[in-house]
Amino acid sequence: MSLKTIHPFPARMAPEIALRRLESLSKGAVVLDPMMGSGTTLKIAGMVGCKGIGFDVDPMALLISGVWNRRVDTNKVLSLADRVHEQVREMQDMPELPWMDNEPETAKFVRFWFAKDQADDLRRLSSLIYPLSEPESDVLRVALSRLIVTKGRGASLGRDISHSRPHKVTEENDFQVFPEFERSVYQVCRILNANPGTGLASVREGNAKRMDSIADQSIDYIMTSPPYFTAVDYFRGHRLALVWLGYSLPALRLLRDKSIGLDRVPDKALDDVLIQELHRKVKHIPDLKPKVRSVLQRYSVDLFEISQEFFRVLKAGGRMTVVLADSYSSGLLISNTQIFKNAARLVGFQFGEVEERPILATKRYLPPPSDSRGNSLANRMKTEAIMTFVRK
Ligand SMILES: C[S@@+](CC[C@H](N)C(=O)[O-])C[C@H]1O[C@@H](n2cnc3c(N)ncnc32)[C@H](O)[C@@H]1O
């Protein structure tokens, strides 16, 4: 099944995984993706007549999922874009962007990743788009971000930004921001017209560990793909665009702190007995360096805590599908899937079935080319597991 997306996103879920499982649900059933990313689960849920609820901590995920899943009047988008173009042409002075100009780390970051001409033009566009509050203005934000979050050449001096592995390749850039922005707006509108959002989804900022706005046992189906152990830092690439959408680096760091799967040691004392249970049947743990073992412990407890929350919100008898792949750390294969199975069992889920699928080479998560793990990972992360559990 092909489903054209409005913006790249790393490690997107294959839409057919969601379609095959959600199409048998009754209309109006409530489907939750607590870590929605670009919103594939919500999109498919809407297409089969289900209500969707999605959470994420990454503002880029919220932006993309929001636009992709809501009803958008693309004529209004195009007239808004025309207005922005007119204003940009009339602009005399260089506008200020307070979150960037008053925050030295963000200003330095922008000077590193953008050449002057593109930075000036992005500044002009950003100053006009940032204050807009019409629902259609989010489409302009997506269109702007697409100029930056690309695999190849774009408005920045980097490459591979869409895979969250940005690396600077040049000091010069002749990318034309305004005409490319115009084209980008048209492209997003075309994709939205071909497969419009249903408006059946609610997209919320929040941590999958604590979805306070969701009542106990109110969800019919959970479908999600959590981050793998230390495989991807979603913010690394997305911040190149988010600094043009009102975010300073310190503000983004606070949001990133809530992400799971990052290379971080625990920030609280962990329960040894729980860790032992979570690591049952998981190989290679004694061979890991102490710091990596500690990072893995944090990740495992994070998987346990999200599982607890998933159990709380799912209806008795409801199903949960989790797409996850095992990942390599220092050359050792860590079974993220076994850790998740252990976590789910501990909180009360019953394991249903598993389907293994090859991960396309283009969809794999890889560290930047400068990182020596890159090539070995490319050869190794080849399958993902689609695990379904039942809430007793
Ligand atoms: C593998 S991606 C999901 C991709 C998604 N299925 C799609 O099709 O685009 C994992 C997502 O989990 C999000 N995430 C990480 N930690 C989170 C947390 N504590 N709460 C909510 N979302 C989180 C990341 O920001 C990322 O968007």
Characterise the protein shown here.
This protein is α/β, with parallel strands linked by helices and 392 residues long. Helices cover 43% and strands 16% of the residues. The protein has three domains: 8-57 and 203-225; 74-194, no CATH class; 264-392, no CATH class. It contains 15 helices and eleven strands. The strands form three sheets. It has a seven-stranded mixed β-sheet with strand order 5-2-1-6-7-11-10, with helices on both faces. α2 (40-47) links the parallel β1 (30-33) and β2. The mean pLDDT is 94. Residues 9, 11-13, 34-35, 37-38, 40, 55-58, 61, 207-209, 225, 227, 234, 258-260 line the site of S-adenosylmethionine.
Q: What's the layout of helices and strands?
A:
Layout: H1 15-22, E1 30-33, H2 40-47, E2 51-56, H3 59-69, H4 74-90, H5 98-101, H6 104-113, H7 116-129, H8 137-146, E3 158-159, E4 167-168, H9 177-194, E5 201-205, E6 219-224, H10 234-242, H11 249-256, H12 272-278, H13 290-313, E7 314-324, E8 327-329, E9 332-334, H14 336-347, E10 349-358, H15 373-380, E11 383-391
Parallel strand pairs: 1-2, 1-6, 2-5, 6-7
Antiparallel strand pairs: 3-4, 7-11, 8-9, 10-11
Helix pairs in contact: 1-2, 3-8, 4-7, 4-9, 7-8, 8-9, 10-11, 13-14
The chain binds S-adenosylmethionine.
S-adenosylmethionine binds at residues 9, 11-13, 34-35, 37-38, 40, 55-58, 61, 207-209, 225, 227, 234, 258-260.
